[in-house]
Amino acid sequence: MKKILFYVFIFLLIFNLSAQNEEKIDKTKYKITYLLRYRPDTTNTELILKERMFLFLGKEKSKFISEGFNAIDSVAKKMERDGSTTIDLGVIFNKIPRSKFKDVIYKNHPKEEITVTDAFGGTYYLYREPNQLFQWKIDDETKDLNGYRCQKATTSFGGRNYEAWFTQDIPIADGPYKFNGLPGLIVTIADDKYNYSYGLIDVLKSDEDMIFNNRNFVKTTKSELLTYKKEFYKNFVQSASQRGLTLDMDASEKKALNRKLSKRNNNPIEILY
Amino acid sequence: MRKYISILSIAFFTLFSASSYSTEAVIDDYYACVDVTFSCGHQGSVCGNSTTEIVTWIMIWDDEICG
After folding, report:
1. Which of A1, A2, A5, A12 to mutate to test the interface with B (most CBs of B within 10 A)?
2. Which of B8, B45, B50 lies closest to A246 in CB terms?
3. Do A188 and A145 contact (CB within 8 A), yes or no?
4. Residues 6+ apart with CB under 8 A from B38
5. Chain A residue with the nearest C-alpha to that of B32
6. Residue B10's closest chain A neighbor by CA?
7. What ipTM score was computed for the predicted complex, to two decimals?
8. Do A12 and B11 touch (CB under 8 A)?
């Protein structure tokens, strides 16, 4: 009896370990921090928000994630590990930055593929696209930025025209968001209307594992996902209640929240897809 | 006997946690819903398939509602 129970336990333990939801996909060599400046609301172009974003660069893959979402992930995993049953959101958000960006971009350079995951409305989404999204025009113009000799390049993407400055001092064909394919790391990139601009803050060596969080994703396409998202934020409260979030609010509070969120989400980085 | 119960509990816990990480998306297959007071005072209820998932969604929703 003792032996049977022991084998059952070992079998279940192996089964559980194989079903873990974290997958090590590469070893990070560099952790690069960018500052994103963006205009979230097309009806209030004076409003410019800032967020720090991380680009984890490995031998073959990279992962781009906002500092805030990266921290949310760490807090949640720590709570599960510690067996905590209570969470004080006020205390948590005093310690970690809030983030509007819950999308994570994984670039697989050998496979020439980008995987994007996103989280909204109680659902995790995933889509893939080829990484050769950019037709770069490289210019002869150079200048020094952040101590690096940089060269100018331009491209159009997602309905916006971008000017990038890359450096061959760091010969890695990667950059913030989905941008890649230049003969050096992108130091700054901004669209011509300054709706979205990324600027390098620092490059640090790292030996952290690069983790892919294998959640219960709904596999979709970019166009479907961006359409769902647009619809979701048009009427947040109603959409959220259909997705498992019930809110104890009166009608005027619901209306105000809907208005706030539709404004905060009306200027995505990709406007044509 | 106590030892068996303890091993059985671990085995059931292991089975339970394993089953909550299905590779297919079953959005309505929640195993727990918790009542939450968001950081800006609004109250609500959030559901998920594991502690990590529930905590992640609580923080995501809080970001949306109070951020």
Report:
1. A12
2. B45
3. yes
4. A89, B44, B61, B62, B65, B66
5. A244
6. A9
7. 0.81
8. yes
Length of chain B equals 67
Choose among B40, B20, B2, B26: nearest CA to A20.
B20
Closest CB to A77 among B7, B22, B52: B52
For residues A99 and A38, what is the distance between their CA atoms, to the nearest angstrom? 12
B25–A124 CB contact, under 8 Å: yes
Residue numbers in chain B where pLDDT is lower than 50? 1-29
Identify the segments of chain A with pLDDT beneath 70. Answer: 1-20
